[in-house]
Amino acid sequence: MAEKTDVWQGTLALMILRTLETMGPQHGYGIARRIEHTSGDRLLVNYGTLYPALLKLEQEGSIESEWGLSANNRRAKYYRISRAGKKQLERQIKEWEATTEILSRFLTREPA
Amino acid sequence: MSWISVLAARLRGIFGKQRFETDLDEEVHFHLDMLIEDNLAAGMDPAEARYDALRRFGPVELMKEQYRERLGLAFMDALAQDIRYALRTLRKSRGFATTTVAVLALAIGANTAMFSVLNAVLIRPLPYRSPEQLAMLWTERPTQNIREGRSGYWNVEQWRNQSRTFADIAAFDPASVMLMTSAGAERVSLVRTSYNFFSLLGVHPARGRVFSVREQAERQHVALISHRFWLSHFGGSPAALGASIDLDGFPSRIVGVLPDGFAFPFMNADIWEPATTLPDWDAKRAVRGPGSWFVVGRLRPNVTLREAQAEMSTIAHRLDEHGPSLEEKSGISVVPLHLEVTGPRSRLSLWMLMGAVLTVLLIAATNVASLAVARNASREREIAIRIALGANRARIVRQLLTENLTLAAFAGVLGLAVAVAATDFVRMVQPEDVARLREVSVDARVLAATFLLSLLAGVLVGMAPAITATRQGGLLIGPEGGRNVAGGRASRRIRRGLIVTQFALAIVLLVGAGLFIRSLWSIENVQPGFRPDGILSVQMASPGSRPAAERAAVYDRILEQVASVPGVVSAGIIGDFFISGSPEQIVTTEGVDGVSQALRFRRDEVSADFFKTAGTPPC
């Protein structure tokens, strides 16, 4: 298996928002697993930073939380993306696309 | 992602701390349980599953710390913790705490009280519309060495017509008249004003109205009464409006009641009349040059005092040239009203008192600081251990500072109580020479001042012990290290410095007080020109407008009756004991050598035995 790399700083919030947008409401554990899965298991989510990141997003108003029951009848805190969060996500996706586009101009290898 | 919503969320985080903690706990548990389940499903045994889950999750406490830090406002948490700790330690050293709080409270209270006096007298604006535009206009008479002389009415009208810098100018003149009531005769203070006086000040009667133009044109006898007069003579009843009162034999109709607390500086009259009610109004009106009127003016917006003074001086010069020739040149002096009210001497004394009281605060603070340093010396060991264990030095300093700030906060609250009592006392005593003392009270500005003073005191007190306590670092010097009550070398040096400072400040205060007492003493011992011991003086309302012979007969009768009172050795009558009411008169003599001399004097009437009674030594 390829080396698992740590999730880059700052992108964790973005991935959380995207995950919630596509998956719908999910608890912390589920979000982490989904991120790992989406990355093809190449990313390792540091659970230590996950919950502080979730708190930050909640304080900023991008996500909302609610206690509910999990699939196996355990009490869990479910997060869902808010309208403001969706807008935020849109903006950040556009920024990323612009960044990668510019960067690729520099980094594209000329065909030999 | 607005910072406001983040701030709000963080503030909420401070208050819901407990709930957040349990929530986070539960979330973490859930997460771990899920991890364990996954592991079990993958075939691990329970112990291994749990171990692996914990390992993969990472350090839980550290994560919780990070979470907590983001949760609330970190510094508020630390502050709350510091305050709780401070209260605990203070409760343990109750003696120290009570002494400190008491000393600081007295100092803060004195400062607050002094500041509220300063506030009322110097800082608060006068209670008129745009008071910074108001100024007094005085006639200068340089040959008589008078800088602030009263003016003739004709001049006032000329100034008003010719001035571009003043929006309006009004005149007023205090007097006293006899009020005839059913209860008898009573002398009341009265001010006669030009018709624009109240509109210039921006003052409206609480009831009724000001004089109308027609009333003044027809020289009707109308009056405005003060709130105090309204209460005392009409019991506050609305029937006062339209009622008639007898002033010096003329019935005057009351058209309005002035608001409570209205007083033009140095005029606290009961009755206000239009100038036109003067019996000799036509003559008075034509008086040029120096006269008997006080003049107040309102500057136009954005006009500076200098511009106004320059213009008025030009006008004065013009009037001098075109008017009838007076023996002396006169000028006009423009003085802003607030300066007029307080006078340079009161200002100086007030600022000096403020300085003195601040010095007291400094003394109190240094005193308390040395106490605090001594106290901390016995905690050196505790602090050294904490530093050795890795405590952040800045945090410890902050904590010590918080301790002292808490003390100062208590002292501030107590000091406020002291200040309120003191201001009540000042209002009651009211030394005569300082204007506006009636208005002394504890208002928002004063509260802010108290807060700042407490803060200042707290910081002053806290600095010294904080520095000494952490300076030694983690070293416990010698076998006694840390257990010695008196503390290490540095703290001893600082304590000595504090004591020296206290002495220096105390000596400054003592010397200042001594100087004050000395001036008071010399004032008390000024020779008044008569022997005041054993003299009683009585103020009488004089039957002013009766012919001389009648008056003499009345006075004789009065003297007879007074002299016959047992215990009275002799009695005399004079118009005004300090002969200040009558105008100055000048006699110019031409000597044989052609040199003219001007003699200035004031005259009054006395009964035969007056000087004997007063004990004036014959010259």
What brief labels describe this structure?
heterodimer, A: 112 residues, alpha+beta, 3-stranded antiparallel β-sheet, two-stranded parallel sheet, 5 strands, globular, disordered N terminus, B: 619 residues, 6-stranded mixed β-barrel, two-stranded antiparallel sheet, 19 helices, 13 strands, 54% helix
Q: How many separate helices of chain A?
A: 4
Of all chain pairs, the largest interface belongs to: A-B, 23 and 27 residues
Topology, number of strands of chain A:
5
Could you tell me the number of beta strands of chain B?
13
Looking at how many chains there are and whether they match, the oligomeric state comes to heterodimer
Separation of the first and last Cα atoms of chain A: 30 Å
| Beta fraction of chain B | 5-15%
Tally of helical segments of chain B? 19
- Structural class of chain A comes to alpha+beta
Structural class of chain B: alpha+beta
Distance between the termini of chain B: 94 Å
Sheet with the most strands, sense and barrel status of chain A: 3 strands, antiparallel
Strand order within the widest sheet of chain A?
Answer: 2-5-4
Average pLDDT taken over every residue of chain A: 83
Strand content of chain A: 15-25%
Give start-end ranges of low-pLDDT stretches of chain A.
1-5
Q: What does the model show?
A:
The complex is a heterodimer of chains A (112) and B (619). Helices cover 56% and strands 18% of the residues of chain A. With 112 residues, chain A is an alpha+beta fold. In chain A, the strands form two sheets. In chain A, strands 2-5-4 form a three-stranded antiparallel sheet. The two termini of chain A are 30 Å apart. In chain B, the strands form two sheets. Chain B has a six-stranded mixed barrel. Chain B has a two-stranded antiparallel ribbon with strand order 12-13. Chain B is α+β, with helices and mostly antiparallel strands. The model of chain B is unreliable at 473-486 (pLDDT under 50). Chain B has 19 helices and 13 strands. Chain B is 54% helix and 14% strand. Chain B is elongated and about 130 Å long. The N and C termini of chain B lie far apart (94 Å). Classes of the chains: A alpha+beta (112), B alpha+beta (619). The A-B interface holds A 27-29, 46-49, 51-52, 55-56, 58-62, 70, 72, 74-77, 88 and B 1, 5-6, 9-10, 13, 23-24, 26-28, 30-31, 33-35, 37, 56-59, 62-63, 66-67, 70-71.
